[in-house]
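Summary: Need help interpreting a holo structure output

Steps to reproduce:
1. Submit the protein chain below together with the SMILES for zinc ion.
2. Request a joint structure prediction with the ligand placed.
3. Inspect the structure token block that comes back.

Expected: a single structure record containing both the chain and the bound molecule.
Actual: see attached output.

Input attached:
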Amino acid sequence: MADDCNDVARQIYSYLDGELTVWKRRAIARHLDDCPPCAKGFTFEVELRQVIVSRCRDEVPESLRRRVAEAIGDSGGEAAGHGGDEVR
Ligand SMILES: [Zn+2]
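--- attached output ---
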């Protein structure tokens, strides 16, 4: 039943996004019930998504914020007290 498996693999993202009709979703859910390899892949996709989502929420802010702040132009601290060595 490789055709079914390919079908499921192809539609798994739509399934996760809730873009499929009820019947399609049922068919996929049923196939996942009967087909351990596909069910395994499905679980992997779901976990992967959760990791991505949680990373976007938690891990980005602190370190990335600083870098962004530096990149935007936070260059007033050290140069201010230097006196001014201008090279012509
Ligand atoms: Zn399968």
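--- end attachment ---

Reviewer comment: Residues 53 and 67 are 21 Å apart (CA to CA). The radius of gyration is 25 Å.
Status: needs-info
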